[in-house]
Amino acid sequence: MGDNAQKSSVIATRIKNIISYFTESLYENVCRSLFERHKLLFSFMLCMQILFGEKKVNPAAWRYFLAGPTGDIPKRENPWSWIRVDEWDHMYRQFKGAADTLENFKGIDDTLVTEQAAFKEIFDSKDPHRMSLPGVYNEKLDMFEKMSGMVSFESL
After folding, report:
1. How far, in Å, CA of 53 to CA of 92, rounded?
2. pTM, entire model
């Protein structure tokens, strides 16, 4: 199989080419046996495994993404007039859970209260994943962590 990968006299480049070829071959062969609706999920899982292998995703952030907040998270009064109480409770629980669990999210639950205008802009956006997060969080969080934070808006 490695014979089909692009050749290189530099060993590191050759290894990278073989891994890339193998990954593409694996993807194509597995996708042949999947229903169309399952291909996106397989692509996501394959991508996540590659990112884990490259140590680009925090395992705790992955677990939080999959399971969400756990345990009893105290409610905070809804300071926003533009969102229902049940929506606020859900969103606050997500962000507070992340703040209590993941280092990069520390303090985001307070930012949620103090940066109402910025969060409303994200909430109202047709492309919230393209919006900048308020405060230090746009620089502090990696793309996967930002995606995990966007889950907080998903059911609203």
Report:
1. 32
2. 0.77
